[in-house]
Design a protein that fits this description.
Elements: E1 44-46, E2 52-54, H1 58-63, H2 67-77, H3 86-98, E3 102-111, E4 117-124, E5 128-133, E6 137-142, E7 147-152, E8 157-162, H4 175-180, E9 187-194, E10 197-206, E11 208-214, E12 221-232, E13 236-247, E14 265-269, E15 284-286, E16 290-291, H5 300-307, E17 312-318, E18 336-343, E19 348-353, E20 357-363, E21 376-377, H6 387-394, E22 399-402, E23 406-410, E24 415-420, E25 423-430, E26 437-441, E27 447-451
Parallel strand pairs: 8-14, 15-21
Antiparallel strand pairs: 1-2, 3-4, 3-13, 4-5, 5-6, 6-7, 7-8, 9-10, 10-11, 11-12, 12-13, 15-16, 17-18, 18-19, 19-20, 20-25, 22-23, 23-24, 24-25, 26-27
Length: 454
């Protein structure tokens, strides 16, 4: 399955558990548990106060879908091995987990002291997955139909996404490969008791610590917990729990039907059949020059003339321009139309304002609902580059976040880079901040800006 596969196992690991999005586009459902990512990891939008929001709303974050979560389950499960040598223990768990045909579990995300977001996930290898989240949302992936359906039952809204897969195997068959690539530095914590049964405890460090309880007989996980003392902006704690695992229980395929209830507003994010081919390998991205022959500030018509029709267009209205870092809404300014042109089939999206034209170009993390963007930055950086590669090409960042993933921000140069497992998975180009504004890194993924002293 595309997406450097099932969306970065801890990809929704992103610093993505932020505040309210700016602007509040619903966007694609990233994953069931915000610590993983399905389809795409939301890119941070930095407002004039230096806080970071996301294109996706908290509700859509929880609505998120599918296999990315399963990838994360496997990731953590790797840690839950029997008390033998580490390599042998991991091998036993890898084999046990990768052999399942169906899987059901719950994910609880605790943001600071708030009540948890609870998501229930059911998946059948090679068939589909179903996620039920809070606030009346569902995400259904059907591998036979190559589609993902997101339902917001409160708003009576449905979005149907095209799924990009490379072959017919289905996601479950890729678990072994993902597990082989996982770090193997688990440590044994000894035995414990869980639900009246003796279990094995293991831990795996990744910014925070996963503690995994495993069944000593089946070698399968029973409970997994990630704790990050400073996992959210403001150095607030974050905790994520996977629990209530049920392996290989019968699951009706009707659970994965892409049925849209009557009366719902339906939107589609699918590759236009009549669009001319676009070779993204030839595209060079620059915050000052634009992308290819599309300059920053280009109108929506100019963007579409070059790239062709988008897969989907999201739109909203704003009381004023406030997208670029360092800009504030102009009081009394007429309403501005803001549109996000989704080109998931090409691996990117474009933000366009009716006043300022193209304000941002963002390449998407390759995944379930996005192909890989093959272009590069004007310094030659491509997806998959290391943190050192980016720093060599762009210098030291003004703001660095190291919460759940690494983020490098160059506000005066117009760049944001996001990494997963040490590899570049997404980057954005936007209008550089004015040199008259000073940026102060707050050390928790946010920043403060103020006019420079004369």
């Amino acid at each position: 399955m595309s997406r450097t596969d099932v969306d970065h196992l801890l990809d929704r690991i992103l610093i993505a558990l932020r505040e309210e999005p700016i602007p509040e586009f619903i966007g694609p459902p990233p994953t069931l548990c915000p610590s993983q990512v399905v389809g795409r990891a939301p890119e941070p939008v930095i407002d004039s106060q230096g806080s970071i929001g996301w294109w996706t709303s908290p509700r859509s974050l929880m609505a998120g879908a599918t296999l990315a979560v399963l990838a994360a389950v496997v990731a953590i499960a790797l840690i839950s091995a029997p008390a033998v040598s580490p390599s042998a223990a991991f091998g036993d768990v890898q084999e046990a987990v990768s052999a399942f045909k169906s899987l059901r579990y719950r994910c609880l995300d605790f943001h600071g002291e708030q009540d948890p977001y609870v998501t229930t996930i059911v998946s059948v290898r090679g068939v589909g997955s179903h996620a039920g989240g809070p606030a009346g949302s569902e995400t259904i992936t059907n591998w036979h139909d190559r589609r993902m359906l997101w339902l917001d039952h409160q708003a009576r809204r449905a979005i149907l996404y095209q799924v990009y897969v490379e072959d017919e195997r289905g996601e479950g068959d890729r678990f072994e490969e993902r597990m082989r690539n996982l770090p193997r530095d688990a440590k044994e914590l000894g035995s414990a008791e869980f639900n009246g049964k003796k279990v094995l405890r293991f831990a795996f460090s990744n910014l925070g610590e996963y503690v995994v309880l495993a069944d000593p007989d089946t070698k399968r996980p029973l409970r997994m917990e990630l704790k990050l003392d400073k996992g959210l902006p403001g150095n607030r704690p974050f905790r994520e729990v996977f629990t209530d695992f049920v392996f290989d229980a019968p699951v009706s395929e009707s659970l994965f039907k892409l049925d849209i209830p009557p009366g719902y507003t339906v939107e589609r994010c699918e590759e236009p059949r009549d669009r001319k081919p676009v070779d993204t390998r030839a595209l060079v991205v620059s915050p000052t020059k634009g992308v290819g022959s599309v300059r920053m500030g280009a109108s929506k018509d100019e963007v579409v003339a070059f790239f062709g029709s988008p897969d989907w267009i999201e739109s909203r209205r704003s009381p004023g321009r406030s997208l670029a870092p360092g800009k504030k809404p102009v009081r009394g300014e007429a309403e501005v139309a803001l549109e996000r042109l989704h080109y998931n089939s090409l691996g990117f999206e474009v933000m366009v304002s009716s006043v300022d034209g193209m304000t941002e170009f963002r390449c998407l993390p390759v995944g379930t609902i996005a192909r890989m963007f093959l272009g590069k930055t004007d310094s030659g950086i491509q997806l998959g580059a290391s943190i050192d590669d980016v720093i060599r090409g762009h210098g030291a960042p003004e703001v660095k976040s190291q919460l759940r993933e690494t983020g490098l921000r160059y506000l005066h140069k117009g760049w944001t880079f996001l990494f997963g497992d040490g590899k570049l998975k997404s980057f954005s180009a936007f209008e550089p901040m004015s040199d008259k504004i000073e940026v102060i890194d707050n050390g928790d993924g946010s920043f403060t800006q103020r006019p420079k002293e004369k």
